[in-house]
Amino acid sequence: MRAGLLTCTALALAVASFVSMATGGRNSGRRRHKEVFLGENSKFKFGGRIDYKLKRQDSTKTLLIKSEQLLKIEEHDFAMRPGFGASAIPVGIDVQVESIDSISEVNMDFTMTLYLRHYWKDERLSFPSRTNQSRTFDSRLVKKIWVPDVFFVHSKRSFIHDTTMENIMLRVYPDGNILYSVRVTVTALCSMDFSSFPLDTQNCSLELESYAYNENDLMLYWKNGNDSLRTDEIVLSQFFIEHFHASSGLAFYSSTGWYNRLFINFILRRHIFFFMLQTYFPTMLMVVLSWVSFWIDRRAVPARVSLGITTVLTMSTIITGVSSSMPQVSYVKAVDIYLWTSFLFVFLSVIEYAAVNYCTTLEEMRKMKRGKIPSTFNASQAMAFDGCFHDNEMELTPFNSMAPTLTTEPLTTPSQCPDLRPPEGTRLRRQRSVRENVDLLVSNSYMIDSYSRLAFPLSYLLFNTIYWSLYS
Q1: Which end of the chain has less neighbouring CB within 10 Å, N or C?
Q2: H helices present in 134-280, as ranges
Q3: Which residue from 158, 89, 79 is spatially nearest to 118, judged by alpha carbons?
Q4: Residues with Cβ < 8 Å from 153, sequence gap 6 or more?
Q5: pTM of the model
Q6: CB 115 within 8 Å of CB 95
Q7: CB 443 within 8 A of CB 351
Q8: Separation of alpha carbons 145 and 127, rounded Å
Q9: DSSP letters along 420-453, please?
Q10: Does the pLDDT value for residue 53 go beyond 50?
Q11: How far, in Å, CA of 299 to CA of 284, rounded?
C-alpha cells in the first residue's frame, strides 16, 4: 500500500513539473520577444523615436472618414442648396487680383489670374467643437458638398491651377460658416474702342454670375463692399492701370429670369512713348525729309525724284506695319489720321516738284520759240543737270505790265477844276486775271519752291497743334 502511495505522489509531482515547465517556457518566450522588440526600437528613444503610445493612437488612415462623419456628409443631400425652399442664400465674394497676364488688341481680350473666395453658411456642416477652431480641407472634400456655381461671363478660356495639387481650399467653422477659395486664370472678352488709338483709354470688366441659381435661390454680393477687391502691384508693358473698382447689377434671361451679377472693373490707359518711338517720330522725320527737295535745284531731276519716291515708300511701310498689328475695325483711328495726313504731305511734295518741272519745261519752250535761247542749247540736258545751272544764265523776258493810257484830251485842266485832280502818290492799277497769274507763275517757276519752303512747314505745324490738342 505504501508503494502505491509513493507511486501516486511521484506521478503528481511529475505532472506538476511538466505543467510548470510548459507555462514558464511560454511566458519566458513572450518576455524574450518583447525584449527583442524593445531592443530593436530603443535606438529611436532620443531624436526621432516613434512613440509607441502615439503609434497606437495614429488614425491618419481614417481621417477622411472621421471628417465626413463629423460633418455628417452622409446624412444630407448636398445636391440641394442650403435652406432649400426658403429665401435665397447669400453668398459673399472676395477677389484678390494677382496679375493681368496679357491684353490683346487683335483678339480684344485680356487674361487675368486671381484668387476667388466665396463665403456662405451651411448649417448642415456645423459640428461640435470645444476650442471653436475651424477645419481646413482641400479639393477632395469639396466634391462631396454643395458649393456655389459661380462662372465668368464672356469668358473664352479659364482653368483652376493644379500644380502640385488643385489650388482649392475649403475652411469650415463650427457654426456652419464656410470659406471656399480657388486660384483661377481666366481669359475674358473686352470690347475696346480704338477711335483714339494709341492715345486711348480702355474700360474692361470681368463679370461673375451664378449659372443655375437665379436671384430667388442665390444672392451674390461683395463681401466687404468696395474693399472686397484687392490687387497686388501690377505692372504692364503698354498700359497703366488707373483704377480698380467693384460694382454689382442684375442680368435678365428670358427663359430663366433675373440673376445677380458682380463686376470687376479696371481702367487702362495706354503708354504713348512706345508709339512715339515706333510710329510718330519716324513719320515726322519722313515728312521733314521730303521738304529737303525744296532746296535742291529744280533741274536736278534724279535727286528730287529719288528723294520723293523714297519718302513715299517709307511712309507706306510705316502705315502697313501699324495696320497689321491692329484689328480690322471699320472706323478711323487717331493714328490713321496722323499717318495718312503725313503721307499726304509727302505725296504733295512729290506733286510740287512735278508742277515745278512742268512749269520749267513750258518756260524754256517759250524762250526757244522767242529766240531767247541759243539754238545750241539742249533743254533735256539742262533738265537733268546736277544743280549748277542757274536762272541768271538765261535771258529772261521781263513781264510787261499793262498800264491804262488815255487817248482823249482832258476836258478841263487841273487849275480850272481843282477838285478833280487825283491825289498825289496814287497810281491806277488793274487787277490781274487768272491767266496772267498762271503766265507769271510759269515764267517764274522757281517761286513755287520758294513758297513751298514756308507753306509746307507752317501747314504741318498747324496740323500737329490741332491733332495733339484734340487727342492728348
Answers
A1: N
A2: 139-142, 273-275
A3: 89
A4: 188, 207, 208, 209, 251, 261
A5: 0.67
A6: yes
A7: no
A8: 15
A9: GSPPTT-----PPPHHHHHHHHHHTTHHHHHHHH
A10: no
A11: 27
Cα 418 → chain centroid: 85
Q: What distance, in Å, lies between the first and last C-alpha atoms of the chain?
A: 137
Radius of gyration of the chain (CA): 49
**Cell numbers found for residue 386:** 546736277
Give the separation between CA 144 and CA 77, rounded to whole angstroms.
Answer: 10
Burial 38-76 (b: 16+ CB within 10 A, else e): eeeeeeeeeeeeeeeeeeeeeeeeeeeeebeeebeeeeb
H-only helix segments in 61-109: 63-70
Q: On the CB side of 161, how many CA atoms lie within 13 Å of its CA?
A: 14
Between CA 386 and CA 392, with CA 388 as vertex, the angle to 5 degrees is 140
- Starting at the earlier edge strand, list the strands of the sheet with 201-210: 150-153, 201-210, 257-270, 239-253
pLDDT, one tens digit per residue, over 92-139 is 999 999 999 999 988 999 999 999 999 999 998 888 888 878 889 988
Q: Is 50 exceeded by the pLDDT of residue 409?
A: no
Total number of residues shown for the chain: 472
**304, HSE (Cβ side, Cα atoms, 13 Å):** 26
Neighbours of 192 (CB within 10 A): 20
Q: Which triple of cell numbers denotes residue 357?
A: 518741272
Q: With CA atoms as reference, report the closest residue to 153 among 204, 117, 189, 102.
A: 189
Rounded alpha-carbon distances, angstroms, from residue 58 to 53, 64, 110: 9, 13, 49
